[in-house]
Design a protein that fits this description.
Elements: H1 4-18, H2 20-48, H3 56-84, H4 86-106, H5 110-138, H6 144-173, H7 175-195, H8 215-247, H9 251-279, H10 282-302, H11 306-324, H12 327-336, H13 341-366, H14 372-397
Helix pairs in contact: 2-5, 2-6, 2-7, 3-4, 3-5, 3-13, 4-5, 4-7, 5-13, 6-7, 6-9, 8-11, 8-12, 8-13, 8-14, 9-11, 10-11, 10-14, 12-13
Length: 400
Amino acid sequence: MTTGNPHRLRAFRNRIAASPDAILVLVALVIFMDMAIYGLLIPVFPEYAPRLGVDESFVGIIFGLYAAMLLLFSIPMGLLSDRVGRRPLIVAGMLLLALATALFGFSATVTHLIVARAVQGISAAATWSAGLALIAETCDPARLGERMGIALSAVGFGTVIGPVLGGLLFEYLGYTATFLVPAVLVAAVGLVVLAVPVRTCRQNDRSTMLPGKNRRLLAACAVVVVAVAATYGIVDPYLPVHLHAAFSASPATIGLVFAVLAIAAILAQPAAGRIFDRHGGSRHLIGGGLLLSAAAIVAAVQAPALPLATAAVFVLGLALSCAIVPVMPILAGIYRDHGSQGAAYGIYNTFYSLGLAAGPFAGAALIGRVPLPALFLLQAGALAITGAAGWLAAGRAGRR
C-alpha cells in the first residue's frame, strides 16, 4: 500500500461530496428503497395475514398506518433536518427502515406488524424530508425541476419493483427472508450515505414552518399536492375493483395496468421538470395537468375495452406527473431565503400523505351510496375544478 492511496480516496470522496449529480443519485436510491420496501408487503401480506388471525380489514389499517406516520412526522423531521443537517436524518431514516423491515420478517403478532409499519412511516418522513431538501440546496435552482423529477421517478421504479421482488422472495425463500434480504440492502445504502461527506449550506437555527410572504402560493401548492395524492388514494384501491367488474381483469392484468401508470410517471416527471426549468409554465403544467387528469379518469371509467382503459391510465400518469413536479421547485423558491428547505419538503410530505389518506377514506364513505363509476367521476370533477381555478388564478397573478 502506498501513502498516496488515502489521499486519492479522500479526493474521490470530496468530489462526490461536491457533486450535485452524486447527491441526486444517493437521494434517488434512498427514495427507491423506501418505495420498494413499501410495496414489498403488497403480495406477501394477504398470504401471511391468516396465520396471525387477521382479516382483510386489517390490511387497510397496516397500509394506512404508513400514511398516518408520514403525516405526523414529516414537518418535525423537516425542521429537525434544518437544524442538525440532512445526512444525519437520511442515515437515521435508512437504519430505521432496515430495522422495520427486519421486524416484519420476525413478526409473530399483530403488535409486531403495527410497530414495524409505524417505524417504517417515521423513517420515510425522515428520509423524504431531508433527502428532497438536500437536492434543493445543492442543486442549481435553474435545474431543480428536472432534478426533482428524476428523484420522483425513483418512486415509480420502487412501486414497480417492490411487489415483484416481494412476490419472488416469498415464493422461493419464504416469509422471513423476504424481509431480511431487503433489510440488509437498506442498511448498506444507509452506510453508503454515511460514508459520503455531503457538503451543504449552513443551516438555519430558527427554521420556520410558514414563510412571511407567499402564503397564498404555499396554500395553492398544498391544494395541488392534496388533489394529486387523493387521486392516487382513490385510484390505487378502487381502480382494480372497476377493472375486474368491467372487464373481468385478472390480478396479473391489473398489475400490468398499474405498471403502465408507474411507467408513465417515470417518463413524464423528468420531462415536466425540464420544461418547467426552461420555460416556466406552471399555469399550463399544473392547471393543464389537473384538467387532463380529470379527462383521463373519465375516459378510463367510460372505456368500452381494457386496452382503451389502459391507454387512459397511461395518460393519467403523464398528467398527474405534470401537475405535481412543478410544485417542488416552487416550494424550494418560497423557502430558499429562509434557509428552511427541510420545512418546505416536510410540508410537501405532510400534504401528500394527507391526500393519500383522504382518498381511500372518502371513497369508503361514498362507495355504499354511489356506484363505483360515479366515485371516479366525482374525483374527476374535483380535479377539473381545482385545475380550472389554478389556471385562472395563475393567469391573474401573471405567472408563467
